[in-house]
Amino acid sequence: MAEIVGVRERDVDIAGESDGHHDWSAKVLCDYEPLTGDLALAWDVRVSPELSPPSEREAARRLAAVLGSTVFHPTAGLRPSAYWATTPEGVTTRARVLDMDPGGCGTPDENADRPPALVVDAAEAPLAQLPGARVELIREALGEE
Predict the structure, then answer these.
(1) How far is CA 33 from CA 38, 39, 43, 133, in A?
(2) What is residue 106's DSSP assignment?
(3) CB burial string 31-47: b at 16+ within 10 A, e below
(4) How far apart are CA 17 and CA 104, in angstroms?
């Protein structure tokens, strides 16, 4: 994350959502949550206002290249399923990500410790790492940047 944002490693603090421990003086704070389904982790990254971080799109491009994995980030609109997907090769396309709601079955107590299950339903360009995603127009993202 330090390479992506352009800071030293000691300026980045990463904590799992369950541990909640942060070095609040860090310039970059990252929380992550494990997922199931097609996506492995959800990240929440906060960058100090004193820095000039890359745009979310550029950060996703850099992160995908460094990790060798497709990176998703939400579009600017209000549709919760509309995302941008960036491949390790630098291809950016719109994608539809659906929450399969593991908590929707059983009682809340039975599902409290289960991570969210997110599935990539479709993308506007083929995603080699997600061959099960259909290739189609993501209509809910039309009109968004």
Answers:
(1) 14, 11, 7, 23
(2) S
(3) bbeebebbbeeeeebeb
(4) 21
- Note the pTM of the prediction, 2 decimals: 0.83
Q: At 91, list the tokens.
A: 């291809």
Instruction: Average pLDDT across each block of 10 residues of the chain; the chain has 145 residues. List them in order.
Output: 93 82 88 93 92 93 96 84 94 94 53 81 96 92 64
Q: Which of 110, 108, 64 is nearest to 88 (CA)?
A: 64
Q: Measured between alpha carbons, how far is 10 from 42 in angstroms, rounded to an integer? A: 22
Dihedral angle sign, alpha carbons of residues 65, 66, 70, 72: negative
Both tokens of residue 115? 């991570």
How would you classify the pairing of strands 117-123 and 36-37? parallel
Rounded-to-integer distance, Cα 55 and Cα 103, Å: 33
